[in-house]
Amino acid sequence: MSKISKASLHIITSFLFLFVAGFTQVQAQDGKALFNANCASCHKIDKDLTGPALLDVEKRWPSKDLLKTWIKNWPDAVKTGDPYAVKIKDWSPAAMTSFNSLQDADIEAILTYIRDWKPATPAPAAGATAAAKSEGDNSLLFGVITLVLALIGLILLQVNSNLRKLADEKDGLPVAASVPFYKNKTYIALVTVLLFVVAGVYISKGAVGLGRSKDYQPEQPIYYSHKVHAGVNQINCLYCHGGAQEGKHANIPSVNVCMNCHLAINEYKGEPLYTADGKEVNGTNEIKKLYEYAGFTPGQAWDPSKAKPIEWIKIHNLPDHVYFNHAQHVKAGQVACQTCHGEIQNMGEVKQFSDPSMGWCINCHRETKVQFKDNGFYSIYEKFHEDMKNGKMDSVTVEMIGGTECQKCHY
């Protein structure tokens, strides 16, 4: 009986250990997601950004409760008179954002992620990646082999014809006069058909590709590396492109959004930057270009009214007859940015990754599952139906269902 009890206890203990380990891993994953969504735009774990580095942040505060108060609403923490809270509020010109929506469990998950964080291992060099890709692409080799085999086939046909003539001469049979290659009707017909097929393929591809710009990669007025911002610094896409979750367009961030971080960051100290053709980029000089657009002089107070928009070159274009809404895809469709834009977090200069043809979009629509339940889009219509049934209202105007929004008519 004791043996059975010990065995049962051992099984239960192992199960609890695995459960706790699995739960801890889920919590860590949630903490990373919460950190990227709320903190990464201003903080890094191991380096100062707009806000201070968060490594060992719990050790710098007298209590975790005060730290949670600071995160939820920093003025409340300053009111306590704690010296560290009073000191840290003036750490950066940009004020700390209040996160009243974060629950204690969310903050605990973020702090757990920060405690367990380890530096990322360096990614393979761009040259090595390109070499690996080129090694995996054998289309050129297949093309050369096909041409060689075709040439061998033509030579064998000619040899066969000559051998047949020699055999006929030996048997005393009449031999037809030799016809030059360029006058042979069979060869002429074969070449003509081949040319028509090749021309038809290229003309069809050209016609289908009209208006598309896959792999289009223009040179921008400022070298902006998504790899540095979204990859290394883990800035959430929606921090800069907030419209992607709320409207038709993803929106290009204004200079003010850039300056939220670059008021404090005026020098680039990261890994070397290179253009698509391999030229090294001076990151600090690119920040200076941003300052010129912002009308900002380091060491002086910045007047946002002096800023002028950066003339970014648009990369992704759709025909005028195509309606595409970012919010429907990001919220209801739960489509990740990388699905259409590629591994944007690994791109230096951005290029158009996808081929937004009709077939490409339809194939995605056939496979993607929509978050149809509780997506917040149809709830307002359900409310109107209920109110009309209950006699609270007798009609619904176009304005009540968003009819005065600009994008209803102007897209």
UniProtKB/TrEMBL annotation:
Q: Which domain of life is it from?
A: Bacteria
SUPFAM superfamilies xrefs: Cytochrome c (SSF46626), Multiheme cytochromes (SSF48695)
Q: Transmembrane stretches, by residue range?
A: 140-157, 187-204
Q: State if Hydrolase is listed as a keyword.
A: no
**Statement: the UniProt record of this protein carries the keyword rRNA-binding:** no
Pfam families, per this entry?
A: Cytochrom_C, Cytochrom_CIII
Q: Which UniProt keywords apply?
A: Electron transport, Heme, Iron, Membrane, Metal-binding, Signal, Transmembrane, Transmembrane helix, Transport
Write down the PROSITE patterns for this protein, in alphabetical order: CYTC
Residues of the signal peptide: 1-28
Q: Where is the Cytochrome c domain?
A: 26-118
What Gene3D superfamilies does the record point to?
A: Cytochrome c-like domain, Cytochrome C3
InterPro entries for this protein? Cyt_c-like_dom (IPR009056), Cyt_c-like_dom_sf (IPR036909), Cyt_c_III_dom (IPR020942), Multihaem_cyt_sf (IPR036280)
Q: What's a single GO MF annotation on this record?
A: heme binding
Output the PANTHER family linked to this UniProt entry. Answer: CYTOCHROME C7-LIKE DOMAIN-CONTAINING PROTEIN, LIPOPROTEIN CYTOCHROME C
Identification of the protein by name:
C-type cytochrome
